[in-house]
């Protein structure tokens, strides 16, 4: 038991020491396709050059698995399959690193969650507030180690569960905008980071109540730092969940959106 604790402590220290002094932080959040519901880690993308060992990773899947409140390095997360699961963060972070950035990933996700009933709004004490508190703890760990943190992007893959009813779908735009505003103004503290919004447009509930699609599109249309990224054409394992290959493609696609469309550049360390 003692040996196991020592090994864990050493792994945490080694991971922290490998972090670059200037970090481009990616916040990834949402429901099942953010989590990687069908991302069986048996098919985890090959990492022949050991790139993942240089990418800090902090994750929480409430009630299921987490990185135990510490930064580790990019890897499969526990649960869902015998080997664990992974999401779009793998190819997203690797692609950004190949583009010359120094990415780290903070991931907070859980399948079948709506803003209306699970995430809530600022001050509701639900998943959004829990994510904000976890984010602050994660950033403080890196800052206490002397690292400069620039929040590079917020990737929000969610909306299917808010399309369950017409009433929830109609309220989605206001609820999502409230989360974005609070993230910018209170949690992160600056508005320069890029935001990518995505929802499965072909999900049966979304097809019945497309207000959630229109909400993401309208939010993006009114803000030069926000892009709606379509999920049409990504490979699926079932009616809504992306296959491991689909998750890999989604990560590369969102990286291209951030680098090519939003063209975010220049340091802007987080102050909160």
Describe the SSE topology.
Elements: H1 2-17, E1 22-30, H2 32-35, E2 56-61, E3 65-66, E4 72-73, H3 89-98, E5 103-109, H4 115-119, H5 127-144, E6 148-157, H6 166-188, E7 194-198, H7 204-208, H8 211-221, E8 226-228, H9 244-262
Parallel strand pairs: 1-5, 1-6, 2-5, 6-7, 7-8
Antiparallel strand pairs: 2-3, 2-4
Word description of this protein:
There is one protein chain. By secondary structure, the chain is α/β, with parallel strands linked by helices. The chain has a single domain (15-262), classed as 3-Layer(aba) Sandwich (Rossmann fold). Helices cover 41% and strands 16% of the residues. The chain contains nine helices and eight strands. The protein has helices at residues 2-17, 32-35, 89-98, 115-119, 127-144, 166-188, 204-208, 211-221, 244-262; strands spanning 22-30, 56-61, 65-66, 72-73, 103-109, 148-157, 194-198, 226-228. Strands 1, 2, 3, 4, 5, 6, 7 and 8 form an eight-stranded mixed β-sheet that branches. Helix 6 (166-188) links the parallel strand 6 (148-157) and strand 7 (194-198). Helix 6 packs parallel to helix 8 (211-221). The longest helix has 23 residues, at 166-188. The chain is globular and about 45 Å long. The N and C termini lie far apart (37 Å).
């Amino acid at each position: 038991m003692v040996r196991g604790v020592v090994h864990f402590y050493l792994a945490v220290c080694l991971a922290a020491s490998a972090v670059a002094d200037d970090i481009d932080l990616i916040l990834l959040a949402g429901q099942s396709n953010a989590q990687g519901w069908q991302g069986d880690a048996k098919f985890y993308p090959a990492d022949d050059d050991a790139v993942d060992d240089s990418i800090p990773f902090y994750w929480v899947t409430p009630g299921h698995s987490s990185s135990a409140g510490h930064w580790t390095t990019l890897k499969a997360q526990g649960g869902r399959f015998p080997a664990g699961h992974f999401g779009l963060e793998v190819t997203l972070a690797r692609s950004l690193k190949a583009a010359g950035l120094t990415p780290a990933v903070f991931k907070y996700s859980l399948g079948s969650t709506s803003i209306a009933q699970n995430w809530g709004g600022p001050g509701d004490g639900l998943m959004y507030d829990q994510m904000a508190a976890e984010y602050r703890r994660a950033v403080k760990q890196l800052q206490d180690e002397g690292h400069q943190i620039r929040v590079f992007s917020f990737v929000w893959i969610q909306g299917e569960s808010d399309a369950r009813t017409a009433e929830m779908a109609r309220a989605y735009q206001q609820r999502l905008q409230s989360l974005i505003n609070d993230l910018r103004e209170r949690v992160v503290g600056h508005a320069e980071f890029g935001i990518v919004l995505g929802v499965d447009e072909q999900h049966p509930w979304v097809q019945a109540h497309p207000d959630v699609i229109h909400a993401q599109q309208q939010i993006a249309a009114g803000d030069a730092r926000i892009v709606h990224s379509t999920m049409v054409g990504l490979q699926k394992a079932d009616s809504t969940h992306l296959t491991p290959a689909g998750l890999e493609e989604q990560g590369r696609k969102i990286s291209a959106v951030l680098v090519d469309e939003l063209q975010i550049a220049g340091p802007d360390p987080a102050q909160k």
